[in-house]
Amino acid sequence: MSESLDSGPPPQAPTTALRQRLAELRGPAAQPHPLDARALAALAANPGCKRRALLDGAGVDKGALASALGSPATFGQSQFAFMRGNAFEARVKADGGRELLKLLGLERPAEVAVPELAAAGPEGRTARTSLALREATATGGWTLLDHPLLVLEVAGSAAYLEPDAVVVHPDGRWTVVEIKSFPMIDGSADAAKVGAAARQAAVYVLALERVAALTDGASVAHSVLLVCPKDFSNLPTASVVDVRKQLSVTRRQLTRLTRIEDIAAALPEDLSFDLETCSAEELTTAVESVPHAYAPECLAACELAFHCRDRAREAGAVETLGRPVRGELGGLTTVGDVLAAARGEAGDPDDPTVAALRRAAALRAESLEAAAHRGAEALAC
Ligand code: SF4
Hints:
Elements (H helix, E strand, L loop, with lengths): L15 H11 L10 H9 L4 H9 L3 H7 L10 H14 L5 H6 L8 E2 L7 H19 L2 E5 L3 E5 L2 E5 L3 E4 L4 E7 L11 H22 L6 E2 L2 E7 L6 E7 L1 H13 L3 H6 L14 H9 L16 H10 L8 H6 L6 H9 L8 H29 L1
Parallel strand pairs: 1-2, 6-7, 6-8
Antiparallel strand pairs: 2-5, 3-4, 5-6, 8-9
Helix pairs in contact: 2-8, 2-9, 8-9, 14-15
């Protein structure tokens, strides 16, 4: 069984009514934009954002929406980087998975089973993956699942997730493999990129635990194998990354997400994010009717970041200054409130935040005065 005992019940499919409502929000002719592990990791990093939860749950293409709103996202992979990444992944999985198993520390893996996982539709593919995991665990030996498909219920909606690979060990352990194209130089890689990969892998571990909980003799490793190009070559090298912390944060955050039904129920009946039929003005109104929780971290994780940042700045929201500053400012929610409190024009002087701001403003005024005085003396000499 899984190492985690709180992996929860298997995911529920969204109700027909919810599916229909989400399709209406997306636009009847629009194909749902799939939620991936990167999106889920970003969602888990900002669980207070109902806007992202709803748009992701409805399968709205946020990149296209951001462009339609006039604030296109600037991140994403170039075609060249995409092709390079695919070529590297093929190299890692060469020789029937033996290359990859060598990176797990096996010198001469004799037999590696690589089951066929193709099936019709996402439900068929997830069922095929679950069956392959169960068979591999029961059989023993080494098995490589190449691009298995997993499912996780998020805020009442099913998210399908496709790790690069999962290795089944002879003892029944399942290990997630993440293949990235950023380099590992002298055994270490960019900490921010490793952190993002670990958060993404934690989502896969979480989804795998649902299957492991129903599989005799299975356990999911809480360390994942991160494979990257070695130094500046395209030779693969690997590092084992402990994702226990990311796993517990992701698990906690995803359960805190407001259910999509509840977010949708609070919106006007005729609201639509249909990119085919709505004007930019209508889309702006629709987006603005769903509460958001902007933070500067959105800039690296969400396609709507420029739009939400502009709105937060227009409102003078202190969220634009970052979560730590926001936390320090307590009940002062706008930059205007903060400045008024610091100048003594507003705010309760017994409030420790207001008192600290006034002390800081007095110190600033004092040091500016001292600097002006020194400047005047220097000119007089
Ligand atoms: S950019 Fe906007 S929609 Fe996206 S997570 Fe941040 S606040 Fe939410």
